[in-house]
Amino acid sequence: MRNVLIAASLLLASSSAFAACSIEVDGNDAMQFNVKAIEVPSSCKDFTINLTHSGKMAKNVMGHNVVVTKTTDMQGVANDGATAGLNNEYVKPDDARVIAHSKVIGAGEKTSVTFDTSKLAADGKYSFFCSFPGHWALMKGT
Q1: For a tag on the chain, would you pick the N or C end, based on fewer CB atoms within 10 A?
Q2: Nearest to residue 101, comparing CAs of 63, 138, 134?
Q3: pLDDT tens, residue by residue, 79-103
């Protein structure tokens, strides 16, 4: 009987009904995220990215954010964000290509961004990246 209960518990825990609708992402002073891919379960209506900056440098020197776009829009959004400046979180205001973005954080800070998953198509190709000038080339994932 105990084995049946354990098997049932494992089955329930692995079902999409219990899928996490958030992820922890860390950025560091070496311009790296600790994850290269994020999977958004289809059962999630909203998804949250919790960003931590584990480095030692201030946000005006080595700040990090997380921006979500279609992969084809990433470079354009990053380039436009670089000129938007820190006051705009390195994201062009009202940029329709941006699905979600967090604020820019520095050493020891945390932030989160939650977005409606209806903005994502099941067959779409999406990327997340840091739009601090020059960071997106290294700090990115799918």
Answers
A1: N
A2: 63
A3: 999 999 999 999 999 999 999 999 9
